[in-house]
Structures are given as C-alpha cells and as structure tokens.
Design a protein that fits this description.
About 45% of the residues lie in helices and about 15% in strands. The protein is of the alpha+beta class. The protein has one domain.
C-alpha cells in the first residue's frame, strides 16, 4: 500500500467517526424529548458502518488497488432508528401524559451514550495520529529523495 492510500483510509475513518459523534450528540440532546412531529417520543439513532469498496474510477486507480485487496476504508452505510420500546414514567402533570398519567420517554441511557461519544472521540484522535505519522513518513521520503 502506498502512503496516500493510508491517508485515504484514515480520512474515511475520520469522516465516519465525525458522523458517529454527531449522532450520539443528537441522542443526548433529545434524551428527554417526549413529542416529535411524527408523534411519540424521539427514537435513539444508531450508526451502521460498512467497509468502503475500492474506487471504481480511473483504470490506473483500480489497477493500483489490486495489490491492496485487504486495504479498505470505512463509511457510514446508514443511520437507523433504534427499535427499543419507549420508557414509560408516571408523571401525571406532564403535558404529554396519557389518560393514566404515564409519559413515554426515549429509551436513551446517557451513560451508554457518553461511552459511545468517548469511543468516537478516541477513534477520531487515533486516526488523526495516523494521518500525522503518514505525513511525517511522506516528508521523510521527500527528504531522502532530494
């Protein structure tokens, strides 16, 4: 694999982890949202990652990737709603309470979401370090060649 391929893989991971962090932040922000335009409480969102396939572009790019059959990046395939049922709490004075006084809240555990956010942040930092190391190797290669 060439060094620019390493940069491509790290860049794809940076993009995917940024999306993951945004989705987790949205989940945390809506942890108490009991009413949405679609009706019912907010549904927790989950990010689904997928292996990024080698480029389908120019012939030279495709040919150069044959040596790197296992070197692939990552991409966000989709963001899906969690199917977990809402948590019902007894709050008779709440504006969204049903006839029995129960309110449906999103099934979001703030501790779990914080762990997910820390994981996304750490993965992002690791990929930034990989980009920095690769830039250093490219710089050293140019120094050797000149």
């Amino acid at each position: 694999m060439n060094l620019f391929g390493v940069l491509d893989i790290s860049a794809s991971a940076l993009t995917a982890e940024r999306v993951r962090a945004e989705v987790v932040a949205s989940n945390l922000a809506n942890a108490e949202t009991t009413s949405t335009p679609g009706g019912g409480p907010y549904q927790k969102q989950l990010v689904v990652f997928e292996t990024e396939q080698p480029g389908q572009g120019k012939f030279a790019q495709t040919l150069s990737r044959f040596g790197d059959l296992h070197a692939r990046g990552v991409k966000v395939e989709k963001v899906v709603a969690d199917k977990a049922p809402a948590v019902r709490r007894y709050e008779p004075g709440h504006p969204d309470a049903d006839a029995d006084g129960y309110v449906s809240f999103p099934n979001i555990n703030p501790v779990e979401e914080m762990v997910n956010l820390m994981g996304a942040a750490q993965a992002y930092q690791l990929n930034v370090a990989a980009v920095q190391a690769t830039k250093g190797m490219i710089s050293e290669t140019l120094q050797i060649l000149t």
